[in-house]
Amino acid sequence: MMQNHRQEPPVMQHSSTKPENKRGNKPELLAPAGSEESLHAAVENGADAVYFGIAGTGNFNARVRAKNISLDKLAETVTFLHRRNVRAYLTLNTLVFSDELPAVESLLREFTKARVDAVLVQDLGIARLAHELCPSLTLHASTQMSLTSSEAFSLAARAGIRRVVLPRELSIAQIRQLRSATDLELEAFVHGALCISYSGQCLTSLALGGRSANRGCCAQPCRMLYTLIDGAESIAGHLFSPTDLATLPLLHDLIAAGVCSLKIEGRLKPPEYVAEVTRIYREAIDVICDGNSSLSSPPDHKTNLERLALTFSRGFSTGWLEGVQPRKLVPGNVVAHRGTSLGTVIEVRRDAVVVRLSASVRRGDGVLFENKSSPEQSQGGRVYEIFFHKTSVREAASGNKVLLTFGNGTINADHVETGQEVRKTDDPQLERRIRKSLQSRRLSRRIPLHLRVRGVVGEPLSVEAVAPTGAKANISSESPLEDAKKHPLTFETLREQLGRLGETVFELRTVDADLDGKAMAPLSVLGKIRRKMIAALETEQVGDPAPLRWGKSLDELRRDDDLKQSQDVFKQTPLNRDFAATVRSAATVRIHVLFRDVRFFEDRLMLQRCLDAGCRSFYAELREPEVYEVAKKAIRDLDAQFVAVAPRIMKPGETWFLEHLCHLNPDAVLVRNLGALAFFQERDVPCIADFSLNIVNDLAFWQLLEWGHVLERITPGFDLDAERWATFLERIPAEKLEWVVQDRSPLFTMEHCLWKANLVSPERHCNKICRTRPLKIRDRYGAVHTVRSDCHCRNIVEDATPINVSQQLPDLIARGIRHLRIEWDDRLGFTHPDDAIRQTLDCRL
Predict the structure, then answer these.
(1) How far apart, in whole angstroms, are the C-alpha atoms of residue 161 and residue 92?
(2) Fewer CB atoms inside 10 Å of the end CB: C or N, the chain?
């Protein structure tokens, strides 16, 4: 009689509060791999996927300073990851210029051949090229793409985007809203450094230092000292340096919100950091989603946060996931690693400090005496000796009063004061443990095998092995099984012998066996089958790879675009009436002026002077929706064109403002994000795309123009410098561009509010103090930048140095640029707006 045996994994005791992902799957844990060592650290500590860039200049990833992975090792690396059941995501998440697209095409071909699981992109041109060239290549929208609404997701999906890496500025409630409104996968950051500005919208490093964050070269100016100027008073500090993100306490809610991937930031961090952070989040996810784990007791968030803080921390917060909390996010004294709290200074002596401990301390620990008012004067060093009750000890426990001594000259006692907080920044014992685990290369993550075995007298013993990677092996004994004289093959023997997988990457998970209870299988036969099975699985290709499919090349896409350009690109709309016929005349240049204060629209004489100087179109960017009517009436009374300006960022629940603009029936709307473009396109409202959409190459230009059938003009991104204008303008109709000729660059575009963080008590309502109390920021070089808030109270810090392209204007006009924009500001260097208009027109020749 046949005996059917099946070994199942232990039944999990599911928690009643287990979060339900929309697709019913456990979320992926995604870890950074800035080097080969970090990649192995991520794999061995439980990452389901890793993301990394390609080494070398010109490889277009947002962490060019990381070691990254060399292109010649890409295929080998991807194969290794797939055999370990880990997905490989490549970062191609920067802006690229037109002349760089051939190099991008080559990289995309290599990525496709290597069978990477997805590519992260920021640039719409790269997204279009990847989608058309490699249809089988999965695309993820980087957080650099600034997709903050379901309306934006709908356009991104048309470029082949399958997953959106969410901006860090979203709350869990907003993520839940997005999950219910889209079928795209959502990926969220759960740990690591935070940017103060919306990713993709930070121009600070570019404007102040010539190093573009959108090109992977951020110099982190947000971590520098600034002075907040509030009238005659000033506050100095690290005003734009946020704490680090740590979401362990919120992980359950974040998973329940429907996020499919939980991302750890840190491609510039060492392998030890990657190992420890990945391990801790792996344990937490397993406990939340499975209801239990292999741990003897559930992980303690407080203990784990302390361990994470020792690995690296500028102090932890939950970012914006619980809403806007300016004081928690940016305490003003955060710039570098702070570790975890150790105690308080009681007494200061020369080269020694008496401390009341709030945590244990050992000899050799690194400590920091934190000066919160002057962080640059904080003192730190390694503990040389510990005295407890005048006796030297190796370690002291929390709650004790101890004397900590340091090497001569290590700390300056003049900058250590009674009452200062003491922090532990380094734990050599913890570092040794992590380093030892990395150096051992002991396999802590294995691939589960599922076996199906048939053992019947007169037939060869057959074993079918299946791994979740898709790898399979079918092995049979060389001879049929014979009748057992003493010891027939049992399920227990079969499981024990085939489960001896030693130092391989495999572990036996389930066995489904059909045994007749009579067959004999010598241990030597079982061992031979096991060895053959392992060899077959290790050499087997991961799964059954689908044949590669290639679509349109870069040259073919450009030929398609050339055909579009040969056609009439101008629609006869009220916005460009009587302009198409004369647009190619160098004398025909249209000036558009943007105002941000309703008082300009209340000054009819000033508006008339602007018209007399050569302006025929006014843009209104106002903070209060009701005052748009004032602007509209004033502009229409002068028979000029009225363009309403939409906010740079649009989050869930904020379409009400766009609805209000729509009801004004403007001649056009200046849109700053894909969500606003989708919104107005659905309502057939003419649009002008702003520079915040980061269009810097011809493929991106035509992609945006194709998406937005209501688009009249496109403003190139500010990363497009004078050196790159020529190649960009060669391949597009320049008359469809609008160039910003005078403006003050928006350095930071922030959800963070400087007024609330520095001038309003936490328990008080702000009462829109930003409307009545102007702020300025002075940087360490003495430049004074202004701060303003938009209609949703987001802060924009504007560069002290105005943009002025007057020297390049003749060349731009010679190349076909016909629409020029002045974004008026009192600090542009002109007495009146009409002076700026006249100078602009004077420069054209």
Answers:
(1) 14
(2) N
User: How far is residue 348's CA from residue 418's CA, in Å, rounded to a whole number?
Assistant: 7
The answer to whether 40 touches 441, Cβ cutoff 8 Å, is yes
The Cα–Cα gap between 402 and 392 comes to 10
CA distance 145 to 427: 38
Which has the minimum average pLDDT: 13-17, 105-109, 386-390, 595-599? Answer: 13-17
Q: Which amino acid is at 80?
A: F
If residue 391 lies in a helix (H) or strand (E), which one and from where to where? strand 391-393
E strand residue ranges, 136-292? 139-141, 161-165, 185-192, 226-230, 233-237, 244-246, 261-264
Q: Which structure tokens are listed for 245?
A: 């993100």
Amino acid at 589: V
Please report which helix (H) or strand (E) contains residue 150, including its range.
helix 150-157
By the 8 A CB rule, do 395 and 386 touch?
Answer: yes
Using a pLDDT cut of 90, give the percent of the chain over it: 69
Predicted confidence (pLDDT) at residue 596 exceeds the cutoff of 50 = yes
Number of Cβ atoms within 10 Å of the Cβ of 65:
11
Query: SS3 for 571?
Result: coil
Q: What CATH number labels 588-843?
A: 3.20.20.60
Per-residue model confidence as pLDDT tens digits over 221-252:
999 999 999 987 788 899 999 999 999 999 99
Strand 185-192 and strand 161-165: the pairing is parallel
Q: Are the beta carbons of 244 and 316 closer than 8 angstroms? A: yes
CA distance 617 to 644: 11
Domain boundaries, the chain: 28-194+242-315, 339-440, 447-539, 588-843
Neighbour tally for 6: CB within 10 Å: 11
Closest CA to 470 of 484, 449, 490: 449
Instruction: Check if 28-194+242-315 and 588-843 are the same fold.
Output: yes
Nearest Cα to 661, choosing from 640, 676, 646?
Answer: 646
For residue 403, pLDDT beyond 90:
yes
Local structure of 113: helix, strand or coil = helix
CA–CA gap between residue 548 and residue 564 (Å, rounded): 29
Of residues 59 and 145, more confidently modeled: 145
Token pair for residue 185? Answer: 């996968």
Give bridge partners of residue 728 from the DSSP assignment: none
- Confidence at residue 576, expressed as pLDDT on a 0 to 100 scale: 53
Contacting residues for 11 by C-beta, under 8 A, at least 6 apart: none
CA distances from 370 to 307, 381, 532 (A): 19, 12, 61
Q: Which residues contact 333 (CB under 8 A, 6 or more apart)?
A: 237, 238, 370, 372, 373, 375
Location of structure tokens 């962080």: 375
Average pLDDT over residues 582-607: 83
CA neighbor of 193 nearest in space, from 52, 317, 301: 317
Stated length of the chain: 845
Which pair of structure tokens corresponds to residue 372?
A: 């919160």
d(CA 419, CA 626): 52
CB 134 within 8 A of CB 105: no
Q: Which CA distances in Å does 580 have to 216, 576, 687, 708, 815?
A: 39, 7, 17, 19, 17
Collapsing DSSP to helix, strand or coil, 88 comes out as strand
Those residues whose C-beta lies under 8 Å from the C-beta of residue 526, and which sit 6 or more positions away, are 461, 493, 494, 497, 498
The fold of the 339-440 domain, in CATH, is Elongation Factor Tu (Ef-tu); domain 3 (2.40.30)
Task: Please state the separation of Cα 542 from the chain's center in Å.
Answer: 29
Other Cβ atoms closer than 10 A to 106: 12
SS3 at position 238: coil
Return the pLDDT at 248.
96
Which residue shows structure tokens 């930048």? 785
Residue 317: both structure tokens together: 């917060």
| Domain 28-194+242-315: CATH class, spelled out | alpha beta
pTM (2 d.p.):
0.91
- What's the mean pLDDT in 803-817? 89
What are the tokens at 20?
């339900």
